[in-house]
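To close the chapter, one final illustration. This time we ask the reader to focus less on the individual chains and more on the assembly as a whole: which components sit near each other, and how the overall shape emerges from the parts.
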Amino acid sequence: MPHFDINDSHRINASQLDVAPRLLLGPGPSNAHPRTLQAMAMRQVGHLDPQFLALMDEIQELLRYAWQTDNRFTIPVSGTGSAAMEASLANLIEPGDKILVGVNGYFGHRMIDMAERYGAETVHISRPWGEVFTEKEIREALETHRPAILGLVHAETSTGANQPLEGIGALCREYDCLLLVDTVTSLGGVPLFIDAWQIDAAYSGSQKCLNCPPGIAPLTFGERAVEKISNRKNKVANWYLDMTMLMKYWGGGTRSYHHTAPINMNYGLRESLRLIAEEGLAERWERHAKTAQLFWDGLKDLGLGCHVVPEHRLPSLTTVRIPAGVDGKKVQQHLLQKYNIEIAGGLGELGGQVWRVGLMGYNSRPENVTLLLSALEKTLKK
Amino acid sequence: MPHFDINDSHRINASQLDVAPRLLLGPGPSNAHPRTLQAMAMRQVGHLDPQFLALMDEIQELLRYAWQTDNRFTIPVSGTGSAAMEASLANLIEPGDKILVGVNGYFGHRMIDMAERYGAETVHISRPWGEVFTEKEIREALETHRPAILGLVHAETSTGANQPLEGIGALCREYDCLLLVDTVTSLGGVPLFIDAWQIDAAYSGSQKCLNCPPGIAPLTFGERAVEKISNRKNKVANWYLDMTMLMKYWGGGTRSYHHTAPINMNYGLRESLRLIAEEGLAERWERHAKTAQLFWDGLKDLGLGCHVVPEHRLPSLTTVRIPAGVDGKKVQQHLLQKYNIEIAGGLGELGGQVWRVGLMGYNSRPENVTLLLSALEKTLKK
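The assembled structure is written out below.
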């Protein structure tokens, strides 16, 4: 049959899949919930099968609960959190639009990088990594720049800071500006009210407090965001993430094919969201707060400090100051090799200065805190 | 804790995940191989864990085998096949580049739509859906248009046509043009030689002949493609799919973080590729050819015809002419409801005229042909 000889040089004999039982206490991925992993192994149905369309409706409803929104356009994007971030920017920005970004960590920078690729005029306000913006600062910047969009990071995965958002949505309406919020490390673990806080657009990831493997990413657009997208003069400069086309698949009605949905990732996300609905948001948020407090108290007992002040600390992600004279990377390696625990180092400005510890969703449990503190203590004493 | 009341209106009580045991004989997704589904449920490790980095190397090697290429830049894209198509175009096209696309089905049109979003000047040659281009036609078009890129679809999922590619790569070198090929429905099921055929860039999907669920998509760039990307004057107008950044994660060396890789989708893809290496490409291609021939012979016995002439028919996907007076959609619905078999109707120009039947990878088995033919016969006799 083939007109050419088959080259066997890359035909390696790879062994059966197996990996160490890591406890993933870094900034994400967190460990997937066992029920989520089970769901992902369910046999497939087609992406236009009536059974899959029914599952899509359920996923959308459960996402609305987790996000506390009635937004009709609430969907999972077929990629990781960064794809959902880009989907937000690619659809909301028309060339020449001004976007104001709050930069107090790595992901604010990423927002600017993406926004520029879609032809936005970008301006920013900044704060040292680990701090947050006050309402006053934001008001002044809106007054000065009069942007079409304000982008803020609710939970900065690079710093562990929790940006207060109450009042910002109202402010944005006053200045006729859309509020876009990164909720990658808050959704499902940190109090968050899309509708009550008047957030116009938000995105998240699956592999943080939702405990679903990476590869699918929630996105929600409110009425004002949908209106801006519907009035676009140009095609969205990104086909895969073009929500004007995807709305026809997820938005009911025609269910037109756009791209093949990642069926099994949707199975997994649905199970993760079911777990949130079963537990209840208030209970879940409180559990995260309690587990984090336990960890922070334990750090103090070890003589370790946190990078972020208590009132703006995320329960889902803590940045721990690396003590002087300690090689942070070596500690991480030792924790991984000896205890199968993954924590991460700092990114960007905080590189070498902090460890990042995530206690997210299913992983936010007292026994994980006990184990990590004990392993950390032994490692630092070595 | 929360300053707002929690809204329970979307807190639905979704049942435990379960779906009917569908036999997916449409244009994709095909049924995932049971070993692939098992692999996807494996516990996670982090995307920078040494164990994951080792798995990445294996995936790249196994992809090189499946594609018959030594291309160093051979990776899985973190999205579905459409994302890999867009990654190819977004990275290869600089604004103003001319791209010549062969349009003989739905996916040629999609290539043009995407290319335009990245500022390409698009020209095309066309053929009725189901036909293929001759080398002579392609040479004439290259002579006339002198494009920077020629885009062809090897296996048109919308028509079932198999575009001959031998000689086209050499032709493109003669005209100093890159050859980009859509191999979504051929990789792992239809003879395909990236290096021997001098294909500069190709992409595929996971949910066709690889039998991995959708959500991860192979991509390979040869030296000439990598050179064009490396010499870009502008940033790639798509952050998530920017291969100049992703090369640092997949390309060895620094392994810099770009976005969180979809860990479990990579587990699944690795298992699917292991199955190909175990079986052997020649054996696999022959199995696809034999199963398809069995199906085509059976169709003839039922008095049904194929849309594509035998010499250009894909073994992985067959377009069956719907007999006059038969409601194609009703037949599909009956097959799904009564026999749990999914086949699809025609797309675009072939809407209402054909059924699309996929016999892909794990699904390419004689018993599936027997079942489908028998179910089809009973359904048509009703």
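Chain A touches chain B through 102 residues (CB under 8 Å). The domain at 34-277 of chain A is CATH 3.40.640.10 (Aspartate Aminotransferase; domain 2). With these observations in hand, you are ready for the problems at the end of the chapter.
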